[in-house]
Amino acid sequence: MRLLEIASAEIGTKEIPGAEHNARILQYAQEAGFDWVNSDETPWCSIFLNWAVQKAGLQASKDARAQSWMEVGEAIAQPELGDIVLFGSSSNSIYHVGIFMGYSKECHFVFTLGGNQGDQVDISKFAASQVQGFRRLIDDPSKIFEVEMNPPSVPQPTPSPETNPEETFPETPEEKEFHQPALETKILVIPTLKLKFGDKGVAVEDLQYSLNIAGFDCGKPDGIFGPGTARAIRDLQLQGKINPNGTYNKKTRKFLEHLLSK
To answer: 253 lies in which domain range?
Structure first.
């Protein structure tokens, strides 16, 4: 899913304390149409989401307030990976918005990919009791309008759909529902194998995803146990009062399971 690819590539982008500002965060604002933003201390969860969905060609709220997403897309009861989730004390008091990534084991928490989460782009968990709604976005109609109203300057022959496999046409919501298989919610898998620096594979990627959700940033999961993963493991071990050797072992796994089961 393009939205997830775009947003997850920004994991680790952080605010800069003090008078300096992260140019990347200001770029989100400028490219999303919020020219007035000149500080990375401006609440930017909605700004980041506007930037990401516009890059993905989806509907945007075009408003810096998290509340604005209550009117975007379609309200849904059963979210799928990549839908929009809104948190607040009530439906009229939304304080955060992000991309739904899944539930915790007991469904007490919702894992969310978003901006301005601990002053950065990351995957964080929020209390499920604070969820005020889920929204499903559709393609931005203005993107279709731009294509129709801006043909190439040099006239081109128009082949039939049968002879041009690359030509695509906007689908109706009904067609999308029929043709597009439902996206499965990401299932959190905590590896049982012992893992160390230099290891590679699916188990390492699962470990990286679990570490990010638990709040130990190791960057975008890539299946390679490198310096970032080792650093996150050591931070986890220090918090759990475990020997900080940077190796994922049984004691480390049990503490990680404890954190993610809350």
So the answer is: 202-260
CA distances from 30 to 9, 23, 24, 47 (A): 18, 10, 10, 9
Question: Would you say residue 161 lies in a domain?
Answer: no
DSSP bridge partners of 76: 134
Q: How far apart are alpha carbons 121 and 32 in whole angstroms?
A: 16
Is the pTM of the predicted complex or chain greater than 0.85?
A: no
Does residue 78 lie in a domain region?
Answer: yes
Of 112, 136, 160, which residue constitutes the final position of a domain? 136
Q: What is the model's pLDDT at position 143?
A: 57
Q: Rounded distance, CA 215 to CA 124, Å?
A: 7
The rounded radius of gyration (Å) of the Cα atoms in the chain is 21
CA-wise closest residue to 121 among 12, 250, 9, 253: 12
Q: What is the dihedral of CA 68, 73, 78, 79, to 10 degrees?
A: -70
Structure confidence by residue, pLDDT tens digits, 77-89: 999 999 999 999 9
